[in-house]
Amino acid sequence: MIAALRGGRPMVARIGVASTLLLLCSLFFCVPSLDAQSAQDLHNELEQMKQQYAQKVAELESRIATLEKQNASIAAATQQNTVTVTDLQTEALRHAEGPADKLTRDERTQIEQQDAVNAPRYDLVRDAEMEIAKLKQQAKLFEFHGYLRSGAGINSEGGQMVAFQAPGAGAKYRLGNEADTYAELTLVNNWINSQHETDKAWLKTTVTVQADTTQSTNYASTDKFRFREAFVQMGNLLESHPEAKFWAGERYYRRVNIDINDFYILDTAGYGGGVEDLNLNFAKTSLAYFIGAHEDINTGSGRYVKNMLDARLYDIKAPLGKVGLWYDYSFSKGGTTTDTNTDIASVGGWALGFTHTRTEWLGGYHRFTFQYGEGAAANFNSGTADPTPFLPDAKTYRVTESVVLQPSKVFAIQPLVIYQEQSTGHPDEGNATWLSFGARPVIFFNQHVSLAFEPGFDRTKSPTGAYEGWVRKFTIAPQIGAGREFFSRPVLRAFVTYANWSDGLKGYVGGPVYKDKTSGWNFGVQAETWW
Questions:
Q1: d(CA 307, CA 288)
Q2: Both 66 and 208 in a single domain?
Q3: Is the residue at 502 inside a domain?
Q4: What's the rounded Cα separation, in Å, for the pair 174 and 151?
Q5: Where is average pLDDT lowest: 44-53, 260-269, 297-306, 368-377?
Q6: Does residue 90 sit within a domain?
Q7: Name one GO molecular function term (predicted).
Q8: Taking a C-beta distance cutoff of 8 angstroms, is the pair 295, 384 a contact?
Q9: pLDDT (mean) for 464-484
Q10: CA dist 435 → 111, 336, 401, 472 (Å)
Q11: According to the model, what pLDDT value does residue 21 have?
């Protein structure tokens, strides 16, 4: 209709033609009456009809003109009300150059919404996909691992909680007995072949920072931070041994521990380099070289150091599990100290170990270890021992048995036994002994709620006869955590701990607050996790 109205003049012409035809028809039907009318009457009638038709045509033209004006107004309003993002941005800039209150919050919001609505959908999808791809790539390249525990507690005397540990013991039973906040934060970056695909080499760096605080305040001057790992590792270099890994730097090297008392059976962490996981078909092997320096002793050769060569065979198939063998040779060069002018003799030493591990046993595993060491290797780690004249005769042997059992989703337990004897090599001293046994049973009520217990017993004896006795500790700890496995973490726990000890250890257990006592309590809360 609008199109018809826009062609106003042709329509008027059509109306004129129709009027003429109508007039002719009227004349045709009125022919009989011409005889009865005079010429003047006919003329008058024709003039009157002309006037009527002219009036009708004028009315129609007026209506057409009105409709055309309305159509033009609609078109103009439509054009005026069509606002583009560019128009809005231009308007926003014009307002921004003027007084600040001219551009309202609603106007700014409208600009942003129009900008988002008018953005090409293809571009948005493409940009999102590119960002997702970048994030996926970064996730493959970068890894973040760690361990932490933290909590708070008080002792039965009203002060800060203390740890109950026997003197001369290599560890303590941990549950409800850790009076510190401790963390290890490990950052890993995969530089090449983050997926460790078998057809090309891979390369990564690892850095670990350790934090240890006394839980006094969160900015205490006694808080300690250490750099524990900083090494580079590369693998799949040898076509004949694709599993072999080469490394150099500072690292935790193939450590073995028992969790519930955090005792490291083998802890050869330190500075060095080597190769590991060489496949010999019947076993895997690793070879590493470490250097440990004594911070306080200097000779003409520099700092007093211990050189350690560590060799291992592992994953050897055996009845009921797998067997591993460990050998260590250590050597420290002597000299004359620069501060006290004392002569230090050169000393060597060796150590060996055996482990039998049964994996996937009753929901857990079983591990037995035996170790023996002499001289500079008697401490079973890369650190230097004090260079006494008796160090060549120093000896240590150790036997451990640890198990994790979880026969059902309701119950799990880790028991352990440790026995160790050490000799400093001094002819006037006896052997230091340490016997420890304990367990941590856990009862799971559902997916997130459990109850843990931990009884532990340690008996120690000093080589000089300064002390001899035992410590008993018992903890009960309701827990909420991530799952119903023995090693499910994170976990939150409240705890009550009771410990008592023999008179032979009075003054050696519990710190100053319990120096004249033979028993004590701890109460507190703790969080623990690793990832």
A1: 11
A2: no
A3: yes
A4: 13
A5: 44-53
A6: no
A7: porin activity
A8: no
A9: 97
A10: 76, 39, 12, 12
A11: 43
**Is residue 368 located within the same domain as residue 517?**
yes
CA–CA distance, 8 with 462 (Å, rounded to integer): 121
Determine contact, residues 471/504, Cβ cutoff 8 Å: no
Tell me whether the omega of the peptide bond preceding residue 490 falls within 30 degrees of 0, making it cis: yes
What domain count does the chain have? Answer: 2
Dihedral, CA atoms, 23, 28, 31, 33, nearest 10 degrees? -60
CATH at 241: 2.40.170.10
Q: Are residues 405 and 488 in the same domain?
A: yes
- What is the token pair recorded at 37? 């009318």
- Quick: pLDDT tens for 185-195: 999 999 999 88
For range 42-48, the mean pLDDT:
71
416-432 pLDDT per residue, tens: 999 999 999 999 999 99
389 and 474 together in one domain: yes
Token pair in block for residue 125: 């999808």
Rounded CA gap, 259 and 150, in Å?
A: 16
Tell me, yes or no, whether 495 lies in a domain: yes
What is the C-alpha separation between 28 and 264, in angstroms, rounded?
A: 128
Beta pairing, strands 335-336 & 343-344: antiparallel
What Rg, from alpha-carbon coordinates, does the chain have?
A: 46
Mean pLDDT of the chain: 85
- Single out the residue in 47, 82, 117 at which a domain terminates: 82
Domain extent for 360:
134-530
Count CA atoms within 13 Å of residue 300 on its CB side: 7
3-class secondary-structure state, position 177: coil
**Is 116 part of any domain?**
no
| 343's tokens | 């002569």
Q: Are residues 77 and 187 in the same domain?
A: no
> Between the CA of residue 40 and those of 49, 157, 357, what are the distances in Å?
14, 140, 137
